[in-house]
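Before relying on records like the one below, remember that each one covers exactly one chain. Contacts with other chains, cofactors or solvent are not represented anywhere in the record.
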Amino acid sequence: MRIRTINEPFKFFLPRSMYIWMRLLLVDDHTLFRRGLRELLEGYGFVIAGEAPTGSGAVRLARELRPDVIVMDVSMPGMGGVEATRAILDEDPAARILMLTISAKEEEVLDALVAGACGYLLKDAEVAEIVAGIRAAAAGEAMISPIVATRLVARLREQRSRERVAAPAAPLPLTARERDILRLLAQGRGNSAIAAELIISPATAKTHVAQLLGKLGLDNRVQAAVYAVRHGVA
């Protein structure tokens, strides 16, 4: 992960008032990474309620601390992140878990999302993306890295081809702009990237995304990616 100082310009695009005092549980078997991530997130106003080097430790601390968001690695000795996610959500269905890992393997991404993770980011993501992912998880939204989204969409396409799943006879009508936004969501683009692509403001992009999800009856961006593939938009 690229560690940047908190004095760098991009920090001003992330108002502290929107996430200060949010309590996090960090789960990763690499002590140095956990330490670096802790210092970075504390610099942005987050409160690190606890740390765990194992999935079993994460389950125990999640039960004791009830953090707002759990930032979890996938691959750990013993109980891995996916298994820990299932165990935590079995006890507390309202728990918010964000996967932060080095693996972009389709199987692990799908397993994590099916287990109930609120997002899936890679450790080499920009700090702003990690912070946005934590905020999204806290809000019950899903955020996935563009590379991960691309591979996930590819896997869904393969599955659709194998199963020969036909698109619904009467899909909901979408405007050209809505199709563009849906296509970009399937690519894992955030609101800022969507705004740049469509030459609109980030606020307008956010509004369009929310309206599109509402129109399609979807809860988050991951569901939008699945919808895009099934309806031939991605």
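The chain has a mean pLDDT of 81.
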